Amino acid sequence: MSVRMKAAAIAVGLVAASAAVPSPAFGIEDDRGYAALIRRASYGVPHITAGNFASLGFGVGYVQAEDNICVIAEKVVTANGERSRWFGTAGPADADVRSDLFHRKAIDDRVAERLLEGRRDGVQSPSDDVRDQIRGFVAGYNHFLRRTGVQRLTDPACRGKAWVRPLTETDLWRTSWASMVRAGSRAVLDGIVAAAPPAAAGAGATPDAAAVVAALNGASAGIGSNAYGLGAQATTNGGGMVLANPHFPWQGPERFYRMHLKVPGRYDVEGAALIGDPIIEIGHNRTLAWSHTVSTARRFVWHRLSLVPGDPTSYYVDGRPEKMHARTVTVRTGSGAISRTFYDTRYGPVAVVPGTFDWTPATAYAITDVNATNNRAFDGWLRMGQAKDVHQLKAVLDRYQFLPWVNVIAADARGEALYGDHSVVPRVTHEVADACIPAPFQPLYASSGQAVLDGSRPDCALGRDPDAAVPGILGPANLPVRFRDDYVTNSNDSHWLASPAAPLEGFPRILGNERAQRSLRTRLGLDQIQQRLAGTDGLPGKGFTTARLWHVMFGNRVHGAELVRDDLVALCRRQPTATASNGAAVDLTAACAALARFDLRVDLDSRGAHLFTEFALAGGIRFADTFDVTDPVRTPRRLNTEDARVRTALADAVQRLAGIPLDAEWGDIHTDSRGERRIPIHGGRGEAGVFNVITNPLVPGMGYPQVVHGSSFVMAVELGPHGPSGRQILTYSQSANPNSPWYADQTRLYSRKGWDTVKYTEAQITADPNLRTYRVVQRGR
């Protein structure tokens, strides 16, 4: 068949439609085509209805390509190990090269293809519904690209670029796998790439892997979250309510995308997903709402290998030598090619962290990433969206055990709330830890949850819990879950204080610490709820409405300053000169005055917020009192004015802010750039005790011009007898394309603490004055 004839055989089109309630017969119900109804509401948010999951995926792929095709295309380049080919390289130590080698190894190992093998039950391998969604997403993306053409894309980031091409289903399974292992093997990929036998040439330093080893828990760097699940005792209407507040990057592939997806009678969910994913990951249906926060649990374990003398690529298991599998991987770069040999064991790849996990003639270390075989996530989120209450949600979590590195916080219309660190966690029970972690590594496990198991003993393999969905992970009985009718919450500390009235204790250390000091952000999150329930926060009445929840979310309190500012001002007034870290004497007089006038918030008109922020980042919040396990929300709380490091941190902050007035308004210097426009941004650093986290690096002499991370999709949703209602916003807006009408509109809305309303029911959707409706159709393949 000629190209022209083939093109004629595929009828593709955009068909205008009315804004009326869609007919249930609009979809194409066979496998020869796709059709979806798109209703774009305010801020470009698509409400997509289709007759089956393939057509639903088609609609999602189409609209996400309309808004973010460059983000998706670059995400695929990464997962295919082609960054250094298309974006240039500085040599073997370049981050793009390391990333490419890691992903090319996964491709050579046929990781994505093997994820699709087995019974299609959503546990052994993805279900037909999910496969249909992926197939449809690919078709929808390709439909848009074919109609528009690479040369006519409006986003300059990828217009006319050779790396923009039609997708395959394998591309999406590869990007999904990369997301699953983000907190596991991908977090230490430089250590995997660098691993080489003694006397062989390694690939240099391993800063990312070293940071993972140094971290006090397993939370992924660069992302975080807050969430509340409010039950009947905490809300004014007696139904459930959820606050979703994930803290994710404002640029790149981990941006969220708002959408509402519906297959009549089968699936009806509003919320958000990471760009490039076909299913809602945080959101609500008619009677259930949920969010996720990054968990402290570790996602991989180390295995210490005892090597065969004279052969550093063989190791003993049960006294018998076993050969490592060596695989050489080659990636194309802008100037040629780079190769690297990887070494795999029965436990997984060998990895190195110089000074901690070295490959010596006697010892090497391999890691087991339990998310490397996690092919259950899309099915889990699909079934989560079909659950009617928190108990049905718990049943979904038990069956699929799919959450790769996040907690779940949920509430339902009956007024019951749920917290669970029901994520994928290596099976290191108390018994395994006691028997299989060698004595030199017991302190590491106790302090950080990192397990180093004896790889020479087959009985120290991860094994299987009887109730676990798959081998190697903790089963539901070993995971912390709590149902409450008042509230549950998490702000990236461990499970322990999700409900202060009923702490979760006695769980394996690999999940996180217990009976230990909480972060300032966790403490503020709990304090905000407790004050609201007591009616002592200055808002009307007691308990939560969505309006009050929104006000609390964006109250922008700086809890560190609430605790120590007065003592800090008194200290610097007593001793108005301090020595900075570089030895210079610094006059603190102006700093004292600015801090005294600071309103203890990071609102746009707050003055002195930047000074306290830099003081906190310099390590100045040092307490004189100790943590009290019987009063975990309010201890410690007194500044240690005798610690010389406090005054040094203030002097360092003054130096860092040279050229910026110490009493400048936060909104004048704390912004996000959109083209030539700088949009004032409220919120601030979690290290200072801010709940509404915004991470915006300081540019000396200028301020904070570009947000890199922080509050992203924010949702305050209330569940009641008439359906869901509430407020939501995507802080960085729906599209990364500077030529899109939805590039900065929600960012401007966020700047003034505005919101978009929840639009779930037909009445809510059709009431939107900006509604624009069209169909996307493709007949034949």
From TrEMBL:
<dbReference type="InterPro" id="IPR023343">
    <property type="entry name" value="Penicillin_amidase_dom1"/>
</dbReference>
<dbReference type="InterPro" id="IPR029055">
    <property type="entry name" value="Ntn_hydrolases_N"/>
</dbReference>
<keyword id="KW-0865">Zymogen</keyword>
<keyword id="KW-0732">Signal</keyword>
<protein>
    <submittedName>
        <fullName>Acylase</fullName>
    </submittedName>
</protein>
<dbReference type="InterPro" id="IPR043146">
    <property type="entry name" value="Penicillin_amidase_N_B-knob"/>
</dbReference>
<keyword id="KW-0378">Hydrolase</keyword>
<comment type="similarity">
    <text>Belongs to the peptidase S45 family.</text>
</comment>
<feature type="signal peptide">
    <location>
        <begin position="1"/>
        <end position="27"/>
    </location>
</feature>
<dbReference type="Pfam" id="PF01804">
    <property type="entry name" value="Penicil_amidase"/>
</dbReference>
<dbReference type="InterPro" id="IPR043147">
    <property type="entry name" value="Penicillin_amidase_A-knob"/>
</dbReference>
<dbReference type="InterPro" id="IPR002692">
    <property type="entry name" value="S45"/>
</dbReference>
